Amino acid sequence: MAARTIVITSGKGGVGKTTTAANLAVELAKIGMKVVAVDADIGLRNLDVVMGLENRIVYTLVDVIEGACRLNQALVRDKRIENLYLLPAAQTRTKDAVTWEQMCEICSMLSGEFDFVLIDSPAGIESGFKNAAAPAQEALVVTTPEISSVRDADRIIGLLESMEKESISLVINRLSPKMIKRGDMLDISDVVEILSVNLIGIVPEDETVIISTNKGEPLTLESTSPAARAFSNLARRLLGEKIPFDELEYVNSKGMLGRIKKFLGL
Amino acid sequence: MAFLERWFGKDKTKNQAKERLQLVLIHDRTDLAPELLEQLRAELIKVICNYLEVDDERIELGLEKEDRAVALVANIPVKNVKRYLSSAK
Questions:
Q1: For residue range A184-236, what is the model confidence (pLDDT) as tens digits?
Q2: What residues of chain A, 77 to 106, have a C-beta less than 8 Å from chain B?
Q3: What's the CATH number of domain A4-264, 1.10.10.2910, 3.40.640.10, 3.40.50.300, 2.60.40.290?
């Protein structure tokens, strides 16, 4: 069976590609899918630390390409969740260490073994992005509701369209319900209207994202935080479920409930 | 006053963001410099003038965004079609 190969990309750096890739991988694995997260950010890898697997890396993607090890030896299995694997990038090399043909070859080898191959793309529109996007049939474009990020997302969507991807979907990350209410942040409909692509996920700004990264524990293990719920919805929508986009309303209700609970000492 | 503008939503910064983004994206997507657009306008008028008499003071030519595509929209008032008819004889 061939896997769905999906690149997670954005153009601009720091908008949440790696966080999205890690949490989506965890959520899909929790649902029962066999998932491998591939770090395509060679030289600036981070998927390993976000997933909390940095101490278990022996070989990397570049070692596989250079024939220093077999593909199975480079895969890091997540012991906390069944069916979840990481293919780490090399940290001491540059993007030039791989070609897009080699990335395609590796991903097609993974495709036979997994249900999902998620590729975490580096920022930018150069060779690193092209290497990450080449093997994928589908793309998730992550943006925040800021001018610079939306502009870069537009550029990336244009490039993905010219690569003739089967589907391009949008994830809007780090939305602040408070700022949207005040009229100081582009809202969901603004961003969707400007970019004109299919919306698949909205993730509210949430402190638990940084806290979980600090600990190296995937956010989605703590199931009640607004962002964790948002990533869970994203995974289920990716599998074809119709789920209403109520992530921002949930933040508000959660806030109230949270405050009452705190007051009662629960 | 600023408070009132804010209250009625005229001063919402998200509207500024949206307008600025839409403008900048039209140019990003076409990759067409303003001088080139001006050159295009001049040449287009020259060609059209071979067939029609147009009011070149009132010509509107610009790029507009339509979903993920950009359209070149021109509004060219025609004064007279006589020249075209006479050359077709």
A1: 999 999 999 999 999 999 999 999 999 999 999 988 876 679 999 999 999 99
A2: none
A3: 3.40.50.300
Token code pair at residue A112 = 């036979």
Tally of domains in chain B: 2
Q: Where are the domains of chain A?
A: 4-264
Q: Say yes or no: B14 and B53 in one domain.
A: no
* Shared-domain flag, residues B25 and B40: no
Looking at the fold, whether B86 and B44 belong to one and the same domain comes out as: yes
| Contact partners, residue A32, CB within 8 Å, separation at least 6 | A83
Residue A150: list chain B partners with CB under 8 A. 21
Place of tokens 């896997």: A3
| Closest CA of chain A from B36, distance in Å | 21
Contact A13, A146 (CB under 8 A): no
Both B70 and B49 in one domain: the answer is yes
Q: Dump pLDDT digits (tens) for B32-59.
A: 777 888 888 888 888 888 888 888 788 8
Phi and psi angles of residue B35, each rounded to the nearest 5 degrees, phi first: -65, -35
Domain boundaries, position B49: 32-89
Residue type, position A56, single letter: R
CA distance B43 to B31: 19
SS3 assignment, position A20: helix
Max CA distance (Å), chain A: 60
Residues B24 and B58 occupy one common structural domain: no
CB contact under 8 A, A190 and B14: yes
Give the DSSP H/E element, type plus range, for residue A36: strand A35-39
Mark whether B38 and B21 lie in a shared domain: no
Residues A209, A163: contact at Cβ < 8 Å?
Answer: no
Question: B20 in contact with A at a CB cutoff of 8 Å?
Answer: yes
Identify the residue among A191, A194, A195, A197 best suited for mutation to test binding to B, counting B beta carbons within 10 A and taking the highest.
A194
Cα→Cα distances A255→A196, A252, A260, Å: 31, 5, 9
DSSP notation for A90-115? PSSS-GGG--HHHHHHHHHHHHTT-S
